[in-house]
Inverse folding.
């Protein structure tokens, strides 16, 4: 078996094992991650509206690494008017305290389909359950599909739909290292180029790993396991579950983590177990941008220069590479955006933001 296929299978199994706890601790949890996701969704709203106002074709949104389906629920709600729905309908309840999900008639008219793809069947199952829970197939005119598969193999044929392909919240970092990242750039180009679409990758910058990344992974031990830079490894591996007592925020100066330890069956083994950062292991992690845990989890935070090389090497048309803090320093300080705009659908939007193509 080729190394990349073996890594793909290993990563898929790991994400199947942590899907439900990821939903609880990340999707509904860590404040810094939630802010980054909020920024991405606001950005995507603006991109979709800009594209919708310029094209006469329906838009097809590809969510590569869709996880538990946050974009399906977001745009299912935004393309549903609740005027005719009862107050106790799930979409009405969802919108009650979320003004960002206000009905958008432009998107209802122009957004034709959302296709979510993820290599984890457990993630797809969670997404399907959400779609059913909120009944969005019954209320929205958008067609919603969810597929267990590889982001590298997604296809889009013809020009019936204008494709917008996105890969968000550092999903590129869990796609089998640099070889997988390059494959993702190539695959996204194949999806959007011939049909004149837009591709967007949102991910973290390697230089922010010491300030954001270490704390995020230390806060979410139950998701990916004990990072290799924390010692001791008394309870590392798959036989125990460590749960940090609090989320560690960006720029925290705390080099320790206090966790409770549980058995696989949920019995508490030890309270207030203290883990400390090993300086040498931290330095190695920061140097190569690789997140590793004792449970086999792997992720990468890529440098701005490395992403620049992939944009220049694999993408065509107007190509933007933006530090996301230029658009929103509060929510998105550690991020970077790679954008391919094949037919200059986004020109006016980026002019308003003061952004110019990095390559054209």
């Amino acid at each position: 078996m080729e190394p990349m296929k073996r890594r793909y299978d290993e990563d898929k199994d790991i994400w199947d094992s942590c899907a439900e706890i990821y939903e609880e601790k990340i999707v509904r949890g860590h404040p810094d991650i939630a802010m980054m996701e909020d920024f991405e969704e606001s950005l995507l709203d603006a991109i979709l509206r800009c594209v919708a106002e310029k094209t006469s074709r329906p838009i097809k949104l590809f969510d590569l690494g869709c996880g538990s389906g946050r974009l399906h629920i977001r745009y299912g709600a935004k393309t549903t008017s609740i005027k005719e729905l009862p107050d106790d309908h799930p979409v009405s309840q969802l919108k009650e305290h979320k003004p960002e999900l206000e009905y958008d008639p432009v998107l209802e008219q122009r957004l034709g389909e959302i296709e979510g793809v993820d290599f984890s069947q457990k993630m797809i199952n969670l997404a399907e359950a959400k779609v059913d829970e909120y009944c969005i197939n019954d209320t929205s005119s958008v067609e919603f599909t969810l597929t267990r598969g590889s982001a590298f193999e997604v296809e889009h044929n013809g020009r019936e739909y204008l494709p917008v392909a996105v890969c968000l919240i550092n999903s590129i970092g869990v796609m089998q290292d640099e070889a997988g990242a390059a494959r993702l750039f190539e695959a996204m180009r194949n999806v959007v180029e011939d049909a004149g679409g837009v591709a967007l990758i949102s991910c973290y910058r390697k230089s922010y790993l010491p300030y954001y990344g270490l704390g995020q992974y230390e806060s979410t031990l139950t998701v990916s396991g004990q990072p290799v830079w924390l010692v001791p490894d008394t309870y590392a591996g798959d036989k125990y579950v460590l749960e940090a007592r609090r989320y560690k925020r960006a720029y925290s100066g705390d080099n320790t983590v206090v966790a409770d330890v549980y058995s696989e069956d949920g019995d508490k083994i030890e309270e207030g177990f203290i883990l400390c950062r090993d300086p040498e292991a931290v330095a190695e992690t920061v140097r190569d941008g690789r997140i590793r845990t004792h449970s086999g989890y792997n992720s990468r935070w890529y440098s701005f220069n490395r992403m620049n090389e992939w944009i220049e090497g694999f993408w065509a048309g107007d190509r933007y590479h933006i530090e996301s803090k230029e658009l929103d320093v509060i929510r998105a300080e550690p991020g970077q955006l790679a954008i391919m705009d094949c037919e200059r659908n986004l020109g006016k939007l980026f002019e308003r933001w003061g952004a110019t193509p990095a390559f054209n």
Summary: The first helix runs from residue 3 to 27.
